[in-house]
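Course assignment 3, question 2. Fill in each field.
Student: A.L.
Task: Predict the tertiary structure for the chain below.
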Amino acid sequence: MFRRDGILYIDLKCEDGGRVRIPVFFSFKAEEENGNLLVASRFLPPGIERHLLSRDFLVLKDFEGSVLIKARLREELPEGKYLLELLEEELVDNRVYDRFNFCPEEFGEFELRRDSSVVGRVRIADISLLGVKLLLKSKVKLVPGELLLLTQGTKIMNIQVVRVVEGRRAVEVGAKILSTNFNLINFIIGHYVRLVKELL
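Answer field:
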């Protein structure tokens, strides 16, 4: 018996009418395996199995995590166990582990600053330890390579614009995160954990 890891994508409707896919990471104990069928139990986080019963999800093939296998819970067994069927393999983009999509309202508004002046208000669409995608509603001239500040209260993030794309609802600004005055890992994981608790 050993533990295996998986990912369930849950679609979430945002306040602005858009939708995002949230990856929910989970694990389970593989008790018996026979070909493409296995008996699974002891799911973490608790309650995730209720969501797995109604949709396909992905299971890591090995510890390296470069290949995922599409899977499905076929039936509930006695004593909190489930019959799990492994379907076909899928290659995965390694960024799935470090880039998190959020609804724009999740982090609230930030001020985008050039030197000491505010050039616009933005919301975060996705974020990783290296980069951030911002949604800017006002028409502001931004140039790739430009250095800007992103602030919210006492939080300060130094960013460098990488690309600017005119979207349907807002201007999308892709930027590299150069430095912050707060713990970015705790910031991302804290919001992610809170969101997953609400979803489950």
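Instructor remarks: Residues 2-97 form a domain with the Pnp Oxidase; Chain A fold (CATH 2.30.110). The first helix runs from residue 48 to 52.
Grade: pending
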